[in-house]
């Protein structure tokens, strides 16, 4: 059997190449494609008469399965972060004390957070009042007034 005429060997070579690239390039995606290519290569060895369209369907199906399973695994058991709120600026603001810049009337207004202003929701407060951020959803900060004793 000439190796140039053996699609199974091409699939296995592609799997090895994708796995090697995964080791060199940061990120985690090519490993799923390497898995799919390896499984397709094994199928091509087991079923040497498998046509090219069958191989392509096998690769696409196994790639989809691998990406779905891998994505679920990384979501559930992914690496722990030293700062899980790193990219969630609104969540990092919880507990901060802010100043009302546009009076909160009818439950809506604006507050100053650092050097910017954010939309805010909460009880009616006059401009200049101090409040604490208790929640953040869809870019709107929910605040509560700070009592004088605090």
TrEMBL record:
Alphabetical keyword list: Membrane, Transmembrane, Transmembrane helix
Pfam families: NfeD
InterPro entries: Membrane_assoc_protease, NA-bd_OB-fold, NfeD-like_C
Compartmental location: Membrane
Record-annotated NfeD-like C-terminal domain positions: 91-145
Transmembrane domains' residue ranges: 6-24, 53-74
PANTHER family, sorted: INNER MEMBRANE PROTEIN YBBJ
Protein name: NfeD family protein
